[in-house]
Amino acid sequence: MTTALILVLVVVLTALVFEYINGFHDTANSIATVVATKVLTPTQAVTLAAVMNLIGALLGTAVAKTISSGLIDAEVVAISSQLIICALLGGIIWNLITWWFGLPSSSSHALIGGLCGAALAAADNNLGVLIWSEAAEDWTKSKGILWKVVIPMFSSPVAGFFLGLVMMGTLMAVISAMNGAGGWIARISRPRWVNAFFGKAQIISAGYMGLAHGMNDAQKTMGIIALALFGAQAAGTLDDLPGWLAFLHPDSADEGAIDTWIIFTCAIVMAAGTAAGGWRIIKTLGHKMVKLHPIHGFAAETSSATILSLAAHFGMPVSTTHSISTAIMGVGFAKNPRALKWSVIERIVWAWILTIPAAGGLAWLLFEALRVLGWA
After folding, report:
1. In which region does residue 231 sit, left (phi positive, over 0), alpha (psi from -120 to 50) or beta (all else)?
2. Using one digit for the tens of pLDDT, what is the confidence trace for 234-256?
3. Spatial distance between the Cα atoms of 233 and 176, rounded to a whole number of angstroms
4. Mean pLDDT across 76-92
5. pLDDT in tens, 194-210
6. What is the C-alpha to C-alpha distance for residues 98 and 109, in angstroms, rounded to an integer?
């Protein structure tokens, strides 16, 4: 077995490690609110999230195609195994740092930052290696960092906040109107009945959140593996594969295509990571920002999952962390602006701002280190 082929296998293994860490790092996004409101136990919530992550990961590949062919210009730099390994390690290291400190940073942006940083190092800091913007007549088909990363990075948190605010405000207005109606309508609008109803409804919204998380986050690693295999095929590394590794050959010449085995493997690994749990971040999202009841959890999860589902449809690798965190903020603001703990929110925002440059810087340093050692 050649050194180049061994490196390809290391890429696939490292990508799956990232997917597993992504699963337990982002578990909190799916289940923090349903655990905080005591609608489900942590074990029940993790199980629900893992199953829905698995189903969601199998429902599309639009985000995977963005990662595999929409961010780096393969004509400027060869997509080497070393480049992909450094990109993944940059994302993994940053994910573990933020997990240790309980900060809900974005695994999506950690991966994108790592990919861009490693690509810049491989291209000798030639900014032309990054596909900045390729507009199409139909904006939903536009690609590049501007359309698929920058715009969603700013718009999804804003959308999460306002959708959470509007949904919570609407629910509060409906309950208030029912309370003023008198009779049996007023009785079922009392807190005990409201908590009982939304306690059941939140199980559905938590499942919806897990599904949307799988639709968006699991696909990013699918795109990385596909990108590595197309690069290896172009370099001739896959020309003489042993029979037991024949599945590594891409099934299609289309660089946007994602093989079936990649889809299923990433889906299963993310579900396994989700099942492992991420309790440090659950504590931050579910308990530290604002005190939640079932109605608040339902509003936050439904708002966030809706944004993630729309983003996945258009192939935008949106941060699950950003959408759920800001949805919780919007719900808390509707409940009582003074109830939000701004010192915690400030730490989260700093983690968002630093993620892409930090992961990118780590990946850049790792690639330069490999170059100094003569391994790249």
Report:
1. alpha
2. 888 988 888 888 889 887 666 56
3. 62
4. 92
5. 888 999 999 999 999 98
6. 13
Structure tokens at 79: 């997509």
String of b and e for 35-59 (b: at least 16 CB within 10 Å)? bbbebbeeeebbebbbbbbbebbbb
Domain containing residue 303: 3-372
Query: Can you give the pTM of this predicted structure?
Result: 0.85
CB of 317 closer than 8 Å to CB of 112: yes
CB-CB contact of 17 with 92 (8 Å): yes
Evaluate if residue 285 carries a pLDDT over 60: no
Q: Does the structure show a pLDDT above 60 at 279?
A: no
* pLDDT interval class at 139 (50, 70, 90): low
Domains of the chain: total: 1
Structure tokens at 201: 């409804």
Burial class (CB in 10 A: 0-12, 13-18, 19+), 18: buried
Total residues belonging to the chain: 376
- What are 6-12's contacts with CB under 8 Å, separation 24+? 7/81, 7/82, 7/85, 8/81, 8/228, 8/229, 8/232, 8/237, 8/238, 8/248, 10/81, 10/85, 11/81, 11/84, 11/85, 11/88, 11/225, 11/228, 12/225, 12/228, 12/248
Neighbours of 150 (CB within 10 A): 14
Mean pLDDT value across the chain: 85
